[in-house]
Amino acid sequence: MSWTVRDSSFDKARIITNGNKYMTGNGYMGYRGTLEEFGRDQLAAVTLAGVYDQAGERWREPVNAPNGLYTALVCNGQRLSVLETEPLDHKQELDIRSAVHRRETVYRIPEGGELIYTAERFASMAELHVLASRQTVKCTADCRITIETGIDSEVWDINGPHLQDKQEMFKNGVLLASAVTGELQLPVAVAELSVFGFGGLKLSKAGALRRVTFDAKAGEIYEWFKYAAVYTGLDMEGAPEELAEQAVQAAAEKGYRELLQAHRRVWEERWSRCDCLIEGDAAAQLALRYSMYQLMIIAPTASEKVSIPARGLSGQVYKGAVFWDTEMFMLPFFLHSDPGVARNLMMYRIHTLDGARRKAAEYGYLGAFYAWESQDSGDDACTLFNVNDVFTGRPMRTYFRDEQVHISADVVHGIWQYIQFTGDDSLLLDGGAGVIWECARFFYSYAYYNPVKERYEILDVTGPDEYHERVNNNAFTNALVKETLEIALSCAELLESRYPESYRELHRQFTGGPFLTEFRTLLEGLYLPRPDPDTLLIEQFDRYFQLEEVTLPELRSRVINKNEYWGGGNGLATTTRILKQADVVLMLHLFKSAFTKEVKQANWEFYEPRTEHGSSLSACIYALVAAEIGSPDWGYPYFMRTATVDLTGESKQYVGDLYIGGTHPAANGGAWMAAVLGFAGVQFDGATVCLKPALPKHWQSVELPVTLRGGQYSLRVTRDEIVITAAAGNREALAFAGFGSPAELCGPGAELRLRLAEPAAAEN
Amino acid sequence: MSWTVRDSSFDKARIITNGNKYMTGNGYMGYRGTLEEFGRDQLAAVTLAGVYDQAGERWREPVNAPNGLYTALVCNGQRLSVLETEPLDHKQELDIRSAVHRRETVYRIPEGGELIYTAERFASMAELHVLASRQTVKCTADCRITIETGIDSEVWDINGPHLQDKQEMFKNGVLLASAVTGELQLPVAVAELSVFGFGGLKLSKAGALRRVTFDAKAGEIYEWFKYAAVYTGLDMEGAPEELAEQAVQAAAEKGYRELLQAHRRVWEERWSRCDCLIEGDAAAQLALRYSMYQLMIIAPTASEKVSIPARGLSGQVYKGAVFWDTEMFMLPFFLHSDPGVARNLMMYRIHTLDGARRKAAEYGYLGAFYAWESQDSGDDACTLFNVNDVFTGRPMRTYFRDEQVHISADVVHGIWQYIQFTGDDSLLLDGGAGVIWECARFFYSYAYYNPVKERYEILDVTGPDEYHERVNNNAFTNALVKETLEIALSCAELLESRYPESYRELHRQFTGGPFLTEFRTLLEGLYLPRPDPDTLLIEQFDRYFQLEEVTLPELRSRVINKNEYWGGGNGLATTTRILKQADVVLMLHLFKSAFTKEVKQANWEFYEPRTEHGSSLSACIYALVAAEIGSPDWGYPYFMRTATVDLTGESKQYVGDLYIGGTHPAANGGAWMAAVLGFAGVQFDGATVCLKPALPKHWQSVELPVTLRGGQYSLRVTRDEIVITAAAGNREALAFAGFGSPAELCGPGAELRLRLAEPAAAEN
């Protein structure tokens, strides 16, 4: 029950949101949750991770591969498709435990009787290039059936077309569709092989589709299997066409059941590292699992050259670009459950350092200014005009690209979190140290000294609250710059003490510019907006408190066009205190140990009613910090809103006239953060796991496995007791503290019980 | 001929622009060039200098007084007014030599025959509170005439009403209208006395109007006189009502002709100090005189508490506020012709220093940040939302108020120019030094140090080109900040050497904050955008060259609504290289000695086609600098455009949905600058008058008087000869140089002839 997502009828209006809801994928590709007969108009897509193309002057975006699982049915000469025929019954479901998608549709046969069509499919987690499907028909009256199946090369593109020189071939029973991308001339090949479990077939071909006709007998089940494989020029093993062909042949040899079994085994292993049990809340249980599922189907398990885009692999929205979402909202999940993926995500930033260096240089800064929208090269895909004005139709100048400088700090934060959580400091030697220092150097060149106030300031930035662009001393950004500088210094210390030779080598590369001395100067003089002594409020940025005080309903009542952008030069929110998303409150989460509970509470209460949550990255942070201040029930609705965003499909679909639909991996990661870091209160600082449970009132317990510094632990958290079990195979002990007690070590194979001394409110 | 402006027919469409074109005034009040029977709907207005009021939350603006010259005619029961009756003939003219307005209108008498109505009026330059008018009727057939005359209390207001507790009285033959302003409760009183030069009158009264009826005989001329006087609570001599009543009684006793004579005498004297003769260009001659006329009717000759608003005294547009226009565009005229007015203008800034201090403090800066829109107190009348978005009707956030920091430098520039031109350094002791130092202190607190580039920068400003707000290192602004710092240091040196005691006293007041040491530090480290070594171009601000390159016609073709604002967050010009007005080129004019002719020419040629001239302050600067680079004929069209702006009425009337019509004193001053400082090439640096004639091709000579450092000189400039004649009464000699020759002294009563060595092109 808590593993299945299901729709029991067909609703045309939900075709696009169901495409997101029923996503499958394996990190190499995403397969939208469309039905077998769907094409480009229904946004069917096989989105490839890390393969980008620019068509003409349009936005650069990921490439969608031809769809090797396309299948349509014709019965007695009439096309059977939910798009054309009202089905008698229809069911679409996703088994998130093993990432298998199923549909079952019952059609009326025109001449009488019914036809039951089922299709099951998965993107293999064991063979990342392979898609497999098992399909059946059964009818209650004899009829003639044609199965039109093969490869649909008419791919959906937002800013396409990306595939040129398309060729289709039929070779040894295998259909082959190949093309090259326009910009980088990357070959893309899809192979398909259909295996029919019954005879009496008449076969004809049309392009990359075959038509298989047979006379079906009432009551019989006709079963067939489809194997598709996708390779591109980025896969270095050989020629994509040959690899794809070999892959489908090999898949067919193994057979569907064996492929599925191997796929299931991988998923079982994945879940064993992260599945989180919530006692007392079935809805939250499903939503949380679903959030983890969405993260796992897009996680790069096999490549350190790609990261996770803001809309995952659900299409080309947001240019398939990687934002700060990855480090700040998704990384924590992987840090606790799959350090290998976490490492790949951070290696992606290391591989794209040159792009970040180019961007810094472009703006006249030193070091590395990471792309706001990062693709394969690390050059910024973000344009200076990222939203259209709905009133004039004109592109609107936005400052996402120029001024969200916190991105460089977010990358550093992610790398350092990785080091803290895994203890794997090899990442620093593999390029991490360079990234950290180049980012610190960037901030040194970005900072200005105010001679009257005798402090360094970070001017002209956009913080997380994008409705207020071009602000000075954004509290969030300044705090992250400070952290970057601290990390830059700590990194040098760590390397010097553990890897003195490598350190000397690296140090030499950095002597020609601002380095540790300058970082120290900036760190010591950096201005950090602090809580007001009376109100305890931290001002989001200089003069934020001078902005118009207006309620959200009042501001909404001023809306003229429902898609109008609230930020930018003339946006409705721009001159008010209304924020798009958690900003100061996110900072309080990140640096929780630097602020008292009173400060957190005062700022939560101040900013919460002023937050529009125009980003799916917002609600989870309010949930997290609500738990942190001991008010999980304030946070619970925010948690649920975050955890169900891709289930309900209730998210913004447009900004200006720009389509922004798709899945929401940052919200998926945020839901996990709220549940585990917030409600279960798992807080690891690299040395001690502090457990501060703050369970919503109807939750009895949370139980989950975590992987920390290479050790496996199982945690069970209730209101008054925490049980920690360390795997026998762990190599060392780890310190745990709970309910404010002193830390205790938990060695390999040991069990630790921490109990609430007296039933009082959770302490901060 | 070259002294008269005339319309020979009546055109309803020109009522408003003619109200500007036919302005009279005397610095105490402006009287719009409306006809006698006009009222608020025709924008009749008596705008009072320095009297401001705010009604409710609307914009604070000057107070218009009731119109004491209102007169309407009724003939045989029918109203005679150009608004209601098509006149047989109509003439409106302005004699700018003596500032007398005349109209003559011929109406058809309904029962047959014609009636000729004439009215002459002036705002007395001898008695600043007095308006006087002589009117006549003459008819070709007997008829019954009613003259409705008195005070029209229905004043035109943009953001009114401003007059409360209105009272009307008839006392000793004098009509009296009085009221108080809403905000400051200032009394405003207008008295009126009509004297009829004929008998047989029947009199009735209605409010502050009287109806005088008589039977007119064909061929007779019926003449009457009107005297009106205006006083307010700001006039410290006594109660406004009594003063006004006494003033009209006294005026009537003197009689119209004597009043007119006294008025003419003052005007004669004024013209003797400035009239500039252009040989070879009658159109330019009239336009230049007209420009000087417009400046003289609004110049504060009797008060150092008011300055000249951006729309002069032609109404309430731009809140009747004083902008940088005064120092940068009008002051030069007065510095060369009327140092007393120049001193008053600068004293106004000294009196409003506290307002500037308050504004600096409001934004967290030190020193004095002068108001972008300054009224009586020096507090900023500029709002944060100064333009409405025509597409949404919403107020648009603009940064005029926050970021046009050059205003403080402009004030300092003006004060120092005054000292240079007059030698009257008493102004420094009267508060000028305090203004200079407070402005320098403001910039010290505004500047930031860039530790990588090792320089101070001026960030986040708006320069003269208001289409580009929030820019860094605007070349114009940085150059003016530098000048401010230099002046601050020079001022200290000057005072220390000449007034050591006063200096010690002043110095003591400034020790508690950044002062000379800090000014020197900033001056030495300040970044000034310099000409590119290859292109010679000076970048208007950081990253200006990265903006979209687009032609003006192309940009115009993108306009959707003709009143849309081109600047602001989403303006058409904002993201392009198109500028509103001279910015770099204005800087080249101000600091001409710091740049080679090649640099000036390269920048003129680059920026000129990219300038929209959306401000009336723009064209004159291109004329000036064209002359400076020896291409006066490039500049001539810009000069004429500037000099005729109030004659043709061809200027922007709307920005967004904001009415901005009125006179253009900055353009008037700019026209004078282009002719005298540009074409005649009169360039005084406080020590030597450098004469660099660059006459347009059809100009034979320019001849004008100037007053410099207390001495009177007459200059006659031709292409190859300059003749300087010093008044016999001068106290000292002054150095003159021309055609690049070494300077020669010209003592009292002497004549100096400078000749072009050989007929070559004018040198830079």
UniProtKB/TrEMBL annotation, chains A, B:
User: Can the keyword Glycosyltransferase be found in this entry's annotation?
Assistant: yes
Which sites bind substrate?
324-325, 580-581
Query: GO terms for biological process?
Result: carbohydrate metabolic process
Glycoside hydrolase family 65 central catalytic domain: residues covered: 289-673
Stretches assigned to the Glycoside hydrolase family 65 N-terminal domain: 9-232
Where would I find the Glycoside hydrolase family 65 C-terminal domain in this sequence? 685-730
Keyword Thylakoid included in the entry's annotation: no
Q: Keywords, A to Z?
A: Glycosyltransferase, Transferase
Q: Name one GO molecular function term.
A: hydrolase activity, hydrolyzing O-glycosyl compounds
Q: Which residues form the active site?
A: 466
Pfam families from the entry?
A: Glyco_hydro_65C, Glyco_hydro_65m, Glyco_hydro_65N
Q: Which residues form the signal peptide?
A: none
Q: Which family does it belong to?
A: Belongs to the glycosyl hydrolase 65 family.
In its UniProt entry, what is this protein called?
A: Kojibiose phosphorylase
